[in-house]
Automatic annotation (TrEMBL):
This is FeS assembly scaffold apoprotein IscU /modular FeS cluster scaffolding protein NifU. It comes from the Bacteria. GO terms for molecular function: iron ion binding; iron-sulfur cluster binding. GO terms for biological process: iron-sulfur cluster assembly. It comes from Sinimarinibacterium flocculans.
Length: 125
């Protein structure tokens, strides 16, 4: 598939071949949603296998929305809970080279991370 719209390479690779796309099953799955007027995605984690989670995402939106979901799932699956404090809109924008006109996708990703942090804290308490 050709990148005729000139998306950054980090976005395009994750859009064309979105690893970790899909859902998780089980009673231990932590699921959060993030929405904007034009897009949405679901981020899911399972800690059944240990301290580093399995992570999956589902997204509806532009290639940047899909890339954000894929990148977040990748980071969470490789770095676990340690990644949470480091994941915010500026970090997402820098990693994926997201331009200003698509910044809302990175903020949607940050919203999902903050919701995930809150959900994980509520399950520990």
């Amino acid at each position: 598939m050709d990148n005729v719209f000139g998306y950054p390479d980090a976005v395009w690779r994750r859009f064309v071949s979105p690893e970790r796309a899909g859902g998780l099953d089980g009673h231990d799955v932590v699921r959060v949603r993030a929405r904007s007027p034009a897009a949405s995605f679901v981020l899911e984690l399972s800690f059944a296998a240990g301290p580093v989670p399995r992570a999956r995402f589902r997204a509806l939106g532009c290639p940047v929305t899909i890339a954000v979901g894929a990148w977040l799932a990748e980071r969470l699956e490789t770095q676990g809970r340690l990644a949470l404090s480091e994941l915010d809109a500026p970090a997402i924008r820098a990693a994926l080279e997201i331009p200003d006109e698509r910044a809302h996708c990175a903020f949607m990703g940050e919203d999902a991370i903050r919701a995930l942090e809150a959900e994980l804290k509520s399950r520990v308490a």
